[in-house]
Amino acid sequence: MYNQHELEKDLEANCGRPYQQCSLSVMDTIADPDITFDQKGICNYYYEYLEAEKEYVRKGEEGKRFLEEAVAEIKRDGAGQKYDCILGVSGGVDSSYLAYLSKEFGLRVLCVHFDNGWNSELAVENIQNIISKCGFDLITYVIDWEEFKDIQLSYFKANVVDIEAVTDIAIFSALDKICLDNKIKHILDGNNVVTEFTLPKAWYFKNHANLRHIHKTFGTVKLKSYPLMSPVRKRIVARIKPFKTWRFLDCVEYDKGKVKEEIIAKLGWRDYGGKHYESVFTRFYQGYILPNKFNIDKRKAHLSNLIFSGQITKETALEELSNPIYPESLLTTDLEFVIKKLGFSEQEFKDYMSADAVSHKSYDHGISIFDEYPILAPLKVFKRN
Q1: How far apart (Å, rounded) are the C-alpha atoms in residues 58 and 293?
Q2: What pLDDT does residue 119 have?
Q3: What is the predicted pLDDT for the residue at 3?
Q4: Is residue 273 part of a domain?
Q5: What is the CATH classification number for the domain harbouring 282?
Q6: What is the per-residue pLDDT for 384?
Q7: Residue 17: which residues within 8 A CB-CB, separation 6 or more?
Q8: Most buried residue, 1, 5, 9, 270, by most Cβ within 10 Å?
Q9: How far apart are CA 165 and CA 145, in angstroms?
Q10: Is 276 strand, coil or helix?
Q11: Residues linked to residue 187 through DSSP beta bridges, in sequence order
């Protein structure tokens, strides 16, 4: 099991670098062995946060004016259409609050939920409350379970860290497709700087070519419905930019605690106990797989981000980190459920957990001209080494 003190000793023994924690936040040399500190002991992630806040966060009157102009543009472009914009909803805090704000702004929103087979009952209930209270239409994008499971299992077999890329890539591809099919020009995005900017690059790898190669290497099921844009279409969409993405949460006072209270009162929202824990798999991935296979405790990044934005103190973060990542009773239930749903035997899953991690970059992660234009494949013989 994940043990902070043992990892501190291993870090010094194997890397020759003593353990160090940021003097301001809870980011440390375990979370990121390449982390840097200034003379005051403050880590690079704090200064990166300040730069992002300066560039993207609009406060006070500036934020109010930006939102007014954005809403006006969205409504203007939606004139004559059934919807002004599209919003992906998960049942979590960010998308729930964004739906509430959109209702307050008078926007006609098409909500989209991506059902990958891992929804918790609480997430489904939260989504139903959002749709009911806000009066929005909902599309539930249900993916073929055997296809989705096959891609997830491919990522397990590849031993790469970002298994959640399988879901994230599909969500964004599905939103793009629905926008194009419904002639919607605007996407509302719940991502924001003040609660979720901080994240070491080694923890994630959202790359279409990487997914294709990992599945080609380890997969057994042909993909027919998984919403992965072809390289050609993806490049065309990127060039013509048929829709805009808006991050409204960077333009309002986004205090996580206060926001939860508001959506509980206004939407009947219920808390699920952790960031992105509306998915059973995400809960298991973040609470068990990441810390025990990859030595990653995502709480360090999430809590540090809230420290940087002034929402909590370091003392509060340390107190939170002292609690178990996963309640033992819930872990027992989730462990049995997840390995059974994925088709692992107990021994197969133990073998996976003990296997060495492999870099995403050990697999293809770029798109060549031959990927973009398959008709040119015969010319590969002339490609220089």
Answers
A1: 39
A2: 87
A3: 66
A4: yes
A5: 3.40.50.620
A6: 39
A7: 11, 29, 33
A8: 270
A9: 16
A10: coil
A11: 86, 245
Residue whose tokens read 């390289």: 231
Q: Give the model's pLDDT for residue 302.
A: 96
Q: How far apart are CA 181 and CA 108, in angstroms?
A: 17
Q: Indicate the length of the chain as a whole number.
A: 385
**In whole angstroms, what is the distance from residue 113 CA to residue 92 CA?**
11
State the pLDDT at residue 14: 62
Query: What pLDDT does 382 receive?
Result: 45
| CA 302, chain centre distance (Å) | 12
Which structural domain range is residue 69 located in? 61-326+354-362
Name 142's bridge partners: 115
For the CA atoms of the chain, what is the radius of gyration? 22
User: What is the dihedral sign for C-alpha 179, 93, 104, 253?
Assistant: negative
User: Whose CA is closest to 53, among 149, 174, 196?
Assistant: 196
Residue type, 320: E
Determine the residue type at 162: D
Strand-by-strand arrangement of the 186-188 sheet: 137-142, 109-115, 85-88, 186-188, 244-246
Handedness of CA 172, 262, 55, 86 (dihedral sign): positive
The predicted-structure confidence for 113-156, as pLDDT tens digits, reads as follows: 999 999 888 889 999 999 999 999 999 999 999 999 999 999 99
Contact 99, 89 (CB under 8 A): yes
Asked if 127 contacts 133 with a C-beta cutoff of 8 angstroms, the reply is no
**Of the candidates 273, 267, 302, 288, the residue with the CA atom closest to the CA atom of residue 337:** 288
Task: Identify the helix (H) or strand (E) that includes residue 335.
Answer: helix 328-342
How far is 168 from 1, CA to CA, in rounded Å? 27
Q: Coil, strand, or helix at residue 218?
A: helix
* Residue 247 belongs to a domain: yes
Query: Is residue 33 a part of any domain in this protein?
Result: no
Tokens 């793009």 correspond to 176
228 part of a folded domain: yes
Residues of the chain with pLDDT under 70: 1-3, 5-16, 229-241, 272-277, 367-385
Q: What is the pLDDT of residue 213?
A: 95
The tally of domains found in the chain comes to: 1
pTM for the whole thing?
0.88
- pLDDT score of 369: 47
What pLDDT shows up at residue 122?
Answer: 86
Helices vs. strands in the chain: H and E counts, helices first: 18, 5
